[in-house]
């Protein structure tokens, strides 16, 4: 099923192809350049080059649209806004861990309507546009549609998260630990992968307390088109934070009872 964002989705997939070639070449490169940003998080020359490549494409193909990216900030004031994380999982990338991806999303009038997540080192890609379902595959011709799980009890649920320390900083560590004790199992897949596994139905709950727009933007359409629910920690739909609580929908209210408010 196509949607009004079909051309934008096709453009995002083309950009992802080109960025994948760039980032794959720099992954495990002995001359990879790494520096610290003002917030002391790492950035590599691959992050910077990937965002520049995407912005160059958009300047030619979508010159009227605004852009917000992790490395170069915001440009433009249009209601259509491209949301870019050139490498989600930079720490993994620079340490040689293959769990990293390029995230390209499109926001219209404050809502994410299209997203592409491409993880070339894992050999996976996921995409969605509002109204056309969520998909995964190496190409659109060989794609399969995504659906979240039907698990409705926490004691049967798989919960994926990222850094435990962030839960303490968000004053939700006690709730996080209590939730972890209620579920069937916990796994720290981290970053984009937690949410893509949720869209595939392999994980039932994913949450992080500290995320930026570019961390979440491309994920939202994929999760929601797969039938999932994506809210802030306090239960508001969308990608405005604080943080993100993402579930198959059936478990959402139960999860929010544990981590939806400060506990310590």
From TrEMBL:
Protein name: Histidinol-phosphatase
Organism field: Mobiluncus holmesii ATCC 35242
Keyword Ion transport set for record: no
Pathway given in the UniProt record: Amino-acid biosynthesis; L-histidine biosynthesis; L-histidine from 5-phospho-alpha-D-ribose 1-diphosphate: step 8/9
EC number(s) from the headed UniProt entry: 3.1.3.15
Binding-site residues for Mg(2+), renumbered to this chain: 70, 85, 87-88, 215
Top-level taxon of the source organism: Bacteria
InterPro entries, per the entry: Inositol_monoP_metal-BS (IPR020583), Inositol_monoP_superfamily (IPR051090), Inositol_monophosphatase-like (IPR000760)
Function: Catalyzes the dephosphorylation of histidinol-phosphate to histidinol, the direct precursor of histidine.
Entry cofactors: Mg(2+)
PANTHER family reported in the protein's UniProt record: 3'(2'),5'-BISPHOSPHATE NUCLEOTIDASE (PTHR43200:SF6), PHOSPHATASE (PTHR43200)
GO BP, sorted A to Z: L-histidine biosynthetic process
GO molecular function terms attached to this record: histidinol-phosphatase activity; metal ion binding
Reactions this protein catalyses: L-histidinol phosphate + H2O = L-histidinol + phosphate
Family, similarity comment: Belongs to the inositol monophosphatase superfamily.
Pfam family name, one: Inositol_P
Keywords (A to Z) from UniProt: Hydrolase, Magnesium, Metal-binding
Database matches in Gene3D superfamilies: 3.40.190.80, Fructose-1,6-Bisphosphatase, subunit A, domain 1
């Amino acid at each position: 099923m196509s949607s009004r964002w079909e051309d934008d989705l096709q453009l995002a997939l083309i950009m992802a192809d080109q960025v994948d070639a760039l980032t794959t070449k720099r992954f495990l490169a002995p001359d990879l350049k790494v520096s610290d940003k003002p917030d002391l998080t790492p950035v590599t020359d691959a992050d910077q080059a990937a965002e520049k490549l995407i912005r160059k494409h958009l300047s030619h193909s979508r010159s009227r649209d605004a852009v917000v990216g992790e490395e170069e900030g915001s440009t433009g004031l249009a209601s259509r806004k491209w949301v870019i994380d050139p490498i989600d999982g930079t720490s993994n990338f620079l340490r040689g861990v293959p769990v990293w991806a390029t995230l390209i999303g499109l926001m219209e009038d404050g809502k994410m309507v299209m997203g592409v997540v491409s993880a070339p080192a894992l050999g996976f890609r996921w995409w969605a546009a509002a109204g056309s379902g969520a998909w995964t595959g190496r190409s659109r011709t060989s794609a399969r549609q995504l659906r979240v799980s039907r698990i409705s009890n926490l004691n049967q649920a798989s919960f994926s998260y990222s850094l435990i320390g962030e839960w303490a900083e968000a004053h939700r560590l006690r709730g996080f630990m209590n939730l972890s004790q209620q579920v069937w199992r916990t796994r720290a897949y981290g970053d984009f992968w937690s949410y893509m596994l949720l869209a595939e139905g392999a994980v039932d709950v994913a949450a992080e307390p500290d995320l930026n727009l570019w961390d979440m933007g491309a994920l939202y359409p994929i999760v929601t088109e797969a039938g999932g629910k994506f809210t802030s920690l306090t239960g508001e739909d969308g990608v405005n934070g604080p943080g993100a609580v993402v579930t198959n929908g059936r478990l959402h209210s139960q999860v929010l009872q544990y981590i939806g408010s400060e506990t310590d």
